[in-house]
Amino acid sequence: MRKALFYALIFFISEVSYGQTFGGGVMAGLSASQLDGDNWGGYNKAGLTYGIYTNARLTKHIDAQLELRYVQKGSKSSEKDQTVFYLSKLNYVEMPLFLKYNFLERFSFNIGIAAGYLQKATEDKDGIGDLPADPEFNKFEFSGLAGVEYRFLKNMFFNVRFNYSILPVRSHPGDQTFYLNQGQYNNLLTFSVYYQIARSNG
């Protein structure tokens, strides 16, 4: 999957550099996540995110942006609790699509949706080692997103984004439900730097 992202990046850069119709570039950063609905709270699971993106100017203040990114999600028990250990690792290939509202010259507000494919899911329930997740997680995820972006250099941006699953990514053990809580949901923060390779002519 990582090789596929690499080849897609090479193709993307060549196409954007040639056509110059849309803006586009690369991004990389860190993720902090938790699984709402399990027994653990707090953004204790750290991970990586990286990928490519393209965007287009719709109006003077609004852009549309499409991304293809690899992002690590999951959950981890608190370091303060030494009696038990838990770690889940969920590796997704994700395609966010969102609108950017540009304001104050250097800032933008982002809102949209994302579709994700679960490439690998493991759990460590005792600190001994990773095993395939049991029960299994759903292969596909749909999430809503919101974020804020700041342009700190001509072609570089810093983005803080919140993602939350629209539908459960896994059922509770025994398929239990609790009113509106129908299962476990990915709760994710990402902190990323974007490098704009090319800009739209529009």
Shape: elongated
Q: Do you know the CATH architecture?
A: Beta Barrel
pLDDT under 50 segments (min length 5)?
15-20
Beta-strand share of residues:
over 45%
Q: What is the topology, as strand order, of the major beta sheet?
A: 1-2-3-4-5-7-8-9
Number of β-strand runs: 9
Order of helices and strands: HEEEEEEEEE
Q: Please report the distance between the alpha carbons of the first and last residues.
A: 33 Å
Return the CATH class: Mainly Beta
Report the helical percentage: under 10%
Total count of domains: 1
Main sheet attributes: strand count, strand direction, barrel closure: 8 strands, antiparallel, barrel
The CATH topology: Porin
Q: Helix tally?
A: 1
* Overall pLDDT metric: 86
The radius of gyration computed from the alpha-carbon positions, rounded to a whole number of angstroms, is 18 Å
Structural class, from helix and strand content? mainly beta
